[in-house]
Amino acid sequence: MAQSRAGNPGVEAADAALRAARENEAAQRAAFWPVLTAGLAPTRQRVANAVASPVSSNASLYTLHTAQLNVSYAPDVFGATRRQVEGAQAQTEAQRFQLLAARLTLALSVSGMGVWMVDLRDGRREWNDELYRIYGLSPRPEGLSDAQWEAMIHPDDRERVMRDTARTRRGELQGVGEFRIIRPDGEVRHLRSAARQVRDEIGRIERIVGVTFDVTDQHRATEAIEQARRAAVEASRLKSEFLANVSHEIRTPMNGIIGMTELALHGRLDPREQAYVAKAHQAARQLLGVLNDLLDFSKIEAGKLQIEHTEFALEDLLERSVDLVAPQAAAKGLELVVDVPASVPAHHVGDPTRLGQVLSNLLSNAVKFTEQGSIVLRVREADRPQNNGTRLRFEVCDTGIGLDADQQSLSLI
Q: Most buried of 51, 271, 363, 364, CB within 10 angstroms?
C-alpha cells in the first residue's frame, strides 16, 4: 500500500498538500489562540476539537479550513463588540462623574464654601472657584502662592494666622480659626477656615485640606447688636443720672415745704386754715414719696441700690404709712385698721425708708380700688431664722375688687 502511494504522483501531491495544510493550520492556531483564550472560551473547545480531528481527504481538509476561517473572524467581531460596550460604559461613567462634579460645584457655590488644598511636597496650592470669589479674585490655573495669600491677610491678623498655619503644617494644630483679609478692591472681609492634615502610609503629612467660609455678614450683625446694646446701656445710664439729679434737686425744696407746713400745723390756726395746711402737708409728703421711688428706680437700674440696716420703731413706721392715705380713705368713708399683736417686738433693724415705700404703695392701691368697707394693715411675726433675729410679715387686705388669677401671676409683690 505504501509503495502504491509512493509511486502514484497524485497521491504524493495530495500528501504534500496535506502537510502544507497542517503547517498552515498550526501557524494560524498559534496566532489566534491567545485571543481565543482571553475572549472566546466557549469557541476554544470547538476549535481545539476541530484541529485535533483527523484529516484524510481533500473534502475534510476543506471543511477544516472552512471552520478555521469562521473561527478566525470571530475574535475580531467579538473584540470589536466588546470594545464598543466598554467604550459605552466608559462614556456613561464619565458623564455620571461630570454630573456629580457639576452638582458638587453647585452645592459648594450655594453654600458659599471655599475648598482648598496645599501640597507640602511641592508647594502646590489648589482652590475651587468659590474660594477665588470669596477672596475677590478671578480663577487662575497656576493657583495662588503662599506669598500672594499672605499679602492678602489683614496686617493685624497676619502674624497670628501665619503662626497657626506653620503649626498646622507641622501637625500641631487643627481646627477652626477666623481672620480678616483685604480684597484687591480694598474691602475687608471676615473669614472662618477649618483645616485637616492628610498623611501617607507612614504618618508623614503630605497635604493640608480645608474649607473657608465668608462670615462677614455674621460679624456685621454681631457688631450691630453689640452697638445697640452699648447704646441701650448708655441711654439707661443717662436716664438714671437724670432721675437721680432731678430727684435730688426737687427733694431739697420739698423737704422745706414739708417742714414748714408741719410747723404751721403745730401753730394757732383756725379750723379752715388747719385743713388747708394739712392737705398741703399731706400732698408734699406724697410727692416726696414719688421722688423717693424715682430715685430708688434709678439706683436699681444703675445697680447702686443699697439696703440699709438701721434701728427703727415699728409703730412710728406704721403710723407714717397710714397717715399718707388717711385723708383719701376718710373721703371715701373707708375704715383703716392696723392689726399688730402685742407679741411683736416694738423695735427692729432694717431699712425703714424702703419698707415705708412698699407699705405706702400697697395702702394707696387698696384705697384706690376700694369703694366701701375697710382696709386692714396686718403685721405678724414670721418664723425666726437660726440666728434668732426677728422677721415680720406685712399684709394689706381690703374689700375692693381685688385681682384675678392672671393679674396675680403678673404682680411683682
A: 363
